[in-house]
Design goal:
- By secondary structure, the protein is mostly helical.
- The protein folds into two domains: 1-37, no CATH class; 45-133, Arc Repressor Mutant, subunit A (Orthogonal Bundle).
- 56% of the residues lie in helices and 10% in strands.
- The chain has helices at residues 2-11, 20-28, 41-49, 54-61, 68-74, 80-92, 114-117, 119-133, and strands at 66-67, 96-101, 107-112.
- The chain has a three-stranded antiparallel sheet with strand order 1-3-2.
- Strand 2 (96-101) and strand 3 (107-112) form a beta hairpin.
- The longest helix is centred in the last third of the chain and has 15 residues, at 119-133.
- The two termini are 24 Å apart.
């Protein structure tokens, strides 16, 4: 979105002279001192859902609590690392909860929070739209 690009350009040294390779490198690693404020509600939602695997994880969790291994089997082609990253992101966003049980080996289950459950209708509508138009 334009505010993000403006913020990156404003705080980076792009166009400030110097070596273009160094400029591109520093711009790609740049983290603004003050975060960009997102005002668009759709963009906020997409940031919560962000990532390649989030929709598939949510699809599986709409059926109920799942263990990591079950999610990995049901979501084909997802690596353990990508699944872990996606689950952590959704947990940080308050969409799902992680429950750890002190067993050997450790058992971890994931379930949706009320915030995550509220996404169910949105994804149903996206599925209907896709069936009609995609």
């Amino acid at each position: 979105m334009i505010p993000n690009i403006v913020a990156i350009l404003k705080y980076s040294n792009i166009g400030a002279g110097g070596d273009s390779l160094n400029t591109a490198k520093s711009a790609s690693n740049y983290i603004p001192k003050s975060p960009v404020i997102i005002e668009c509600n759709v963009e906020k939602t997409l940031n919560v859902l962000g990532g390649k695997w989030a929709f598939l994880v949510l699809r599986e969790l709409f059926d109920g609590t799942q263990r990591f291994g079950a999610l990995q089997r049901k979501i084909t082609n997802v690596s353990p690392r990508a699944l872990t990253t996606t689950l952590r992101h959704l947990e940080e966003q308050g969409v799902l909860e992680r429950h750890v049980f002190p067993t050997v080996p450790v058992t971890v289950e994931y379930s949706l929070t009320p915030k995550g459950e509220d996404l169910h209708q949105i994804l149903k509508e996206m599925k209907l739209w896709s069936a009609k138009w995609a």
